[in-house]
Known about the structure:
Layout (H helix, E strand, L loop, with lengths): L1 H85 L8 H14 L4 E8 L4 E5 L14 H8 L5 E2 L3 E2 L12 E13 L2 E12 H11 L7 E5 L5 E3 L3 H5 L7 H4 L5 E7 L2 E10 L4 E8 H5 L3 H44 L12 H42 L2 H16 L3 H19 L5 E3 H18 L4 E7 L7 E3 L3 H13 L6 E10 L2 E8 L6 H4 L16 H14 L4 E7 L3 E9 L5 H8 L9
Parallel strand pairs: 13-15
Antiparallel strand pairs: 1-2, 1-6, 3-5, 4-5, 5-6, 7-8, 7-11, 9-10, 10-11, 12-14, 15-16, 16-18, 17-18
Amino acid sequence: METKCLESTKKLKPRGMQSTIMFAFSVISVSIMLVLGIVMYMKFSSLSQHEIIQNTKKLMEQTGENLEDYLVSMRQVSDAVYYNVIKENDFSGQDNDIQQGMNLIYEANRNDLRSIAIYNNYGSLMAAEPIVLQKEDINVTRQDWYGQAVEEVENMHFSTPHIQNLFDDATRRYYWVISLSRVVELTENGNPLYGVLLVDMDYSSISRMMQQINAANNEQYYYLCDGNGQIIYHMRQLQISNGIANESSKVAAGYKDGVYDETFEGEHRKLIVRNISYTGWKLVGVIPDSAFTHGMLNIRYFIVMLILLMAMMLAVIHRVVSERISSPILKLNDSVMEYEAGEKPEIYIGGSQEIRHLGHSIQRSYEQIDILMQKIVLEQNERRKSELDALQSQINPHFLYNALDSITWMVEGGRNDDAVFMISELAKLFRISLSKGRTVISVQDELQHAKSYMNIQKIRYKNCFSITFDVDAEVYSYCCVKLVLQPILENAINYGVDSMDDCGEIIVAGKKKNGNIILSVTDNGIGIPEDEIGFLLTDSDRVHKHGSGVGLVNVNNRIQILFGKKYGLTIESELDEGTTVSICIPAVVYTEDNRKVLEKGHIFGREE
């Protein structure tokens, strides 16, 4: 019965693992296809939007040039009347010449003109073409075109569209015009006086140009406004004037040439603005977002169909691949389970190169487990022993006795401030030395411990040496093994600068470099012979000529046990020049979590 259950379980395993692999591949594939589909759609949408904007700009550029050509021709009409008629004749006796000249100009441009009129500075009509009667109740000085011309005498002024209301027309027809007005200098009886030249352009010419570009059957449209946002042409001009519809022409009037994003009445759209030269007018193209998405429906269908086709193809491929992957892995798993059950079977070696390599690795790993366990136990014991030795070696009774003796001597000598300073530094030293039993502290605390230690030593040695701390502030917040600087400083004093007369110098430096923290202690003492340097960090039993190196060995071992063999101490020395001992540790930000993990040895493996 048990055998049948076991066989049944084994038969279920391949299907479960195969399904898992197939499901994982399917999720990844579907995710990739969705991302690709979205990217493709966004790319096509962006290209389509760019194409629509470019086509709109080209159309507006062509229309703008046509408008400018038309308006330039009207300016030329105004110049022709001014320079060929007004300036060449006296209005007191050359009426026929003036009328004839204006008639020639009018006839040459009658398709684009409604009237030409000249008024004096009192608003009285001096001449007009075609010859018609002016309405009796008209006061032209109150007309906008007249006021604009008088206010800015140097410029030509274009009005907004309005009904021509100056002259009686026998046909009783009313025409929409745009007035071009300017101040001119008249001559009457030989006396100069100013007047206003009025050229009424036929609005239908501009209207036809705008209707042509608005003829396309899509959602975008174009309108024309002046520099103040007053509508000159709009498809819904009548509705806008009656307050039924609105347009953001006042906002568009403030834009320079270019493309702008706008949200108007809750709808996001793009505005394309082109200035019409010499007039201050703005040709504005409006493209709602819906116009961009109008042509993207077919592309959406295409992308969806492509994704579905790829999904069906990948489903078949995933099934074949999952079977080939899962079969050897399950066989390997079965042999491992038998091994864990206490049997000693041969580990399955088969399948792809990676799975065969995995089988060989598992087989070798079982053989190495006992050796590795013994090595781990040995390293843990060595770590605890090194930490204990280091802690015990840092604060010895001799150092404490000398410090207390110095304090007693200061109190008896009345140097209370120095005694207080000495006690304070000793308290800091003990606080950091104990550190609640912690092995890892911050670089800032380690430096404070070193400073307190050196302040005490300077008093003991009566300031026969100087100490300088040159440590970058950025390294203060990183982790450091406790009490690594004190043994190095002690060696620097005892075996480096102790024998020097008031000229000993010790420099403690620190910086971050290539992801590591580098702390160094440099002295200008007698140095270390080259044949001794090689043993200072490797042989704790060797008797060194210049004092004990056990402190340096312990510091180096503690660092390597905690962080790995590639970290620790390096020593550089030259006889009669000095010695530099550098500490290299990884840059790990000091937090409570990082400290706990470091002390458990879980961050940096000891694969060496």
